[in-house]
Structure formats: C-alpha cells, structure tokens
Write a structure and sequence with these properties.
Ski3/TTC37; Serine Threonine Protein Phosphatase 5, Tetratricopeptide repeat; TPR repeat; about 70% helix
C-alpha cells in the first residue's frame, strides 16, 4: 500500500472510531496518520477533529492552523477552527475564521454558504457588542443579492441598531473630550461641564466623514423601510433629524469652516421636520419645536428686502418662506414661545415697515404697523434676558433681539430697554457667536436697525458713520436723514444722496417720497412743482382718483401738505 493510501486508511479508521465514540482509538489512528503523512492536509484536519473530540481545544486549534498553512483556500480546516473557537469562546478567532469562510465561498460562488456564514458572523459580533463589525457584517448581509427579503430586512434593522450604538459612542467620546478641554482651562461648575458635554455630543452628530455619512444613509434607509410603522421610537426615528440639526448648528457656528451651506442645512432640516410631523404628529413636537426658529433664522426669512411691502425695492420670496413660517406657527401653538410669538406678530404685519424719522410720532397708536403689543413685548424681553436655552439657539436669540429693536423703532421703548440696546445685543450675537458671513442679510439688517436706533435717540453723527458703511436704499435714506439733522443741516448733501438713491433704486417708492418731501420743504422755490411731481408718482396719485389703500399714511400726509404748499 502506498504512503498516501495508508494515510487515508488510517484517517478512515479514525473517523469510524469517532462515529462509535471510541476517541482513544481515533486519536491513535490520527496520530499514526500524522506520522505517516505529516504533509497531508486531510491528516491535520482529522487530527484537529479528533483532538477536539478528546477535549483538547488548544491542540485542535493548532492542528487546524497547521492544515490552513498547507491549503489556505480549502474550507474544511476553517470549519474545524470555527467549531473550536466557538467552543473556546474565542470571539476574535471565531470572527476571523468566519470572515475567511465567507471569502472562500464567495470565490467559489456558493452564495447560500456566504449568506449562512455572514449571518453567523454578524450574530457573533452582535452578541459581543462589537458594533463597528456588527454594522459592517449587517451591511454586507443586506447587500448580498442571494439573501431573501426577510434576511435583508433583518440585516437592515440590525445595521440601524449598530449605527445608533456607534453614533452614541462617538458622541460620548466627543462630549467627554469637550469637558476635558474645559477643565484644562478653567475651574468649571457642573452646569458648565454639562453644557460643554452636550455641545460636544451634538457636534459629533454633525461630523462629515465617509463613515458617518454611511451610518446615516443606513438610518435613512431604515426609516424609509419603516415608513408604514406608526409606533414612534425617539432614538431611531429622530436620528436623521438630530444629525441635520447638528449640521445646521455647525454651519451657523462662528467656528464653522464654511464647508456646510447654511441655507442647504436649514432646508434639509425643514423637510425632515415636516416629514416627521406628518408621520408622527405631536409625538415629535418636543424635538421639532426648539429648532423651528433656528430654521427661520438660517433661511433669513423676511430679511432679504430693505423694507417689506410698499417700501421694498424688490420682493423676492423664497419657496420655503411659507413652509418655515407655518412650522413656527404650528410649534408655537403646541408650546408657546415668546420669540416665535413676537416674530409672527411682526411677520404678519410685514415686520416693522418704514422708519421715517421726520414723521415718527412720539407716541404711536397701539395698532401702529410693526409695534408689538405691550404684553408681547414684555414677554419677549423676559425670554431674551432669561438666559434660558429652552427659548432657542443663538440664531433664534439674534432674531428675537432684532425683532424687538425693529418694534422699538416704531415705539414702545421701556426705561430699562431701548431699541439701541436690543439692536446692539443682536449685533453682538451675530458677530460673536454665529458665522456672520453665513447670515449676510441678518448681519446687514442688524447694522441698519442699530444705526436707525442711534438716529432715533438723536445720535446722528454716530448713525451717519454707520450708514456710510452700508449699501441700499434704506441706508441711503438714513444717510440723508442724518445730513438733514446735522448742525447746521446739510440739505444739499441730503438731496444729493436721495437723488442718487432714487436713480439707483427706481422701484423703491419710499426713497422718492423722502426725496420729494425734502425738495418741497428745503429745496429752491422754483423746484416745488418738481417736488410735487415726485411725490405724486411715488404715491401712485392719479387725477380724480383716491390714493391706494396700500400707500402709507405718512406718504399720503406729505403729498397732501405738498399739494397745499404748491397751490
């Protein structure tokens, strides 16, 4: 009998002995087979099988690994290692072995075995709470074409669970790092540490690397697949929302790298918020309500024109304006928010309207356009000065201070709060806590309102300096008003600025009203007819017809006085 034949005969004898439970005879036969053919792959596989049956786990592993060294592309030794590592509770070894079996069966095209071992590999790391590998194996199982719908659905759910665990672990690490950084620079209170930890954890949700993006793609796929479910799971269903919220917060932050587009982040968050509200209703309102004003602030709704309505040079309305405004309205109805209440009040009246210093009444009527009711104003001031994070983020606070300042330009200043204070605070927040380059309209609006607040308090020189750094019809009107109230009045400069503004912004009636009025009261007598003509065109006056109801009262009054003077 040849050497190979004798080895195979010994292996057969060892196998038969194992079948009848005679492990000692099996061990003797396998040992003889090893002596006769130490370079035979099958001999080492059988030797490992016999040693495992004898309870020698380490010896079995050594024998199987010897066989693997001879034929790394054959599954028999790996299947033996799989059993040995499983019996020993060696999770890393078992995982490595299963991965190798998956590779071998993938190469041979045995998809049924691939699915079987993928499922087993996933279960192993899932039970061990190795979430990174649990995620990768579940994702691979989900992507396997031969897996059935039930298997893929199971894999998607497991991938989602693993993704959430990875997300939370990363957030905890980032939160602790933020606390450690704080402790390294100061003696912080527990409240400060909690705030730093929360900030760090939130920032981690918005990290933009490939792995994180893949995690959230999986979460989004799970959410879509779970679309018929009416059972709300805050941790899973709010995961995408939390990430989009973190991305918007990162885009707005003064530490932003500029890689994230604020408007895009806000629109994505708006879509997700409305999708969740449509699906789960008020169950998600406590999560959505705190960010509604942040979305409005990021989209800079109502800040894209000089003065809305009759005073606008252009009135371009973003398609998201109504959607975002309705979200704020719905959230405010669910849980009252003083900033939202004031913003909506001004929004419904087209914000503050025109600020015309020369015709500003010292005590405006309670129903004056853009004037907040006293109770709304007082609630807004209380919310803004409470240092309570629940009222909104930094962008929401800036919007609230700006709304308060704009209302106080019309009237309603308190002894302890003036328009200049409110607008200055808005500027500090935008410049000190937010990325002002990402909010250009807000930054400009704050500067305009602050300059007008200076003018309202009589600081014309400081206001003039501020207006000269700004562009647009509203700033040019402010410059002209400051020149008009200089000591002595510089009417020539005021008229020149207004004439330039009227030429540059022909669709802004307010500029032409100011020009016509100043030309009437301070221009040469021979230009009174021209002044009247400018006023009439600005007000849309037509012979024998009443003025439009949309024409502001102050413009109508000026036109009436001009007609009387020219008569």
């Amino acid at each position: 009998m040849s050497g190979k034949s004798s080895v195979m005969a010994l292996l057969k004898a060892a196998n038969e002995a194992l079948k009848v439970g005679d492990v000692e005879r099996a061990r003797e036969s396998s040992a003889q087979a090893i002596d006769a053919g130490a370079d035979v792959y099958e001999a080492w596989v059988m030797h490992g099988k016999v040693l495992a049956a004898c309870g020698d786990g380490n010896g079995a592993i050594e024998a199987y690994e010897k066989a693997v060294g001879m034929r790394a592309d054959h599954p028999a030794a790996y299947r033996g290692l799989r059993e040995a590592f499983s019996a020993a509770g060696d999770i890393p070894g078992l995982s490595r072995t299963l991965e190798r079996l998956i590779e071998i069966y993938t190469a041979t095209g045995d998809q049924e075995k691939v699915v079987e071992f993928l499922r087993e590999a996933h279960d192993v790391v899932y039970e061990a709470k190795d979430w990174t590998r649990a995620y990768s194996t579940a994702s691979a199982l989900r992507a396997e074409p031969s897996a059935g719908d039930d298997v893929r659905s199971f894999a998607l759910g497991r991938a989602c669970e693993a993704a959430l665990e990875i997300r939370d672990a990363r957030a905890r690490i980032a939160g602790q790092a933020a606390v450690d950084a704080l402790r390294a620079t100061t003696i912080a209170s527990k409240a400060d540490e909690d705030a730093a930890r929360a900030s760090g954890e939130r920032a981690a949700l918005g990290v933009d690397d490939d792995f994180t993006a893949n995690l959230f793609d999986t979460l989004r796929a799970w959410s879509s697949a779970d679309g018929t479910s009416v059972s709300f799971d805050a941790r899973a269903h709010m995961a995408i929302f939390a990430r989009l919220d973190a991305r918007l917060n990162a885009a707005l932050s003064i530490t932003s790298s500029g890689a994230l587009n604020v408007k895009t982040c806000a629109r994505e968050l708006l879509v997700e918020a409305n999708s969740l509200l449509e699906r789960f209703g008020d169950n998600v309102m406590n999560f959505v309500a705190p960010v509604a004003l942040e979305i409005v602030s990021a989209l800079e709704i109502g800040l894209d024109v000089e003065e809305e309505g009759w005073d606008a040079d252009v009135d371009e309305k973003d398609v998201d304006d109504d959607v975002a405004t309705e979200l704020v309205r719905r959230c405010h109805a669910f849980k009252a928010n003083a900033i939202a209440n004031a913003w909506l009040a001004l929004r419904d009246t087209r914000r503050s309207g025109a600020f015309a210093y020369s015709c500003r009444p010292p005590n405006p009527p309670q129903d004056a356009k853009g004037l907040l009711a006293e109770d709304v104003r007082d609630a807004l001031i209380a919310a803004l000065t409470a240092n309570d994070a629940s009222v909104g983020g930094k962008a929401s606070l800036a919007l609230g201070w700006l709304a308060l300042a704009e209302s106080m330009l019309v009237g309603g200043e308190r002894v302890d709060m003036h328009a200049s204070q409110a607008s200055s605070t808005a500027i500090k927040i935008v410049a000190g806590d937010l990325d002002s380059t990402a909010l250009p309209k807000t930054s400009r609006r704050c500067a305009i309102v602050n300059a007008e607040a200076m003018m309202r308090s009589g600081a014309f020189k400081a206001a003039a300096s501020a207006f000269e750094t700004l562009e647009g019809p509203r700033a040019m009107r402010g410059t002209a008003t400051c020149a008009e109230h200089a000591h002595p009045p510089d009417y020539a400069r005021a008229l020149d600025v207004l004439a330039s503004a009227a030429e540059a912004f022909p669709n802004c009636p307010r500029v032409r009203v100011e020009l016509g009025w100043l030309l009437m009261i301070a221009g040469p007598i021979e230009q009174q007819c021209e002044a009247l003509s400018i006023l009439e065109r600005a007000c849309g006056a037509v012979t024998d017809e009443a003025l439009s109801t949309s024409t502001p009262a102050d413009a109508c009054a000026r036109l009436g006085i001009a007609r009387w003077r020219a008569a």
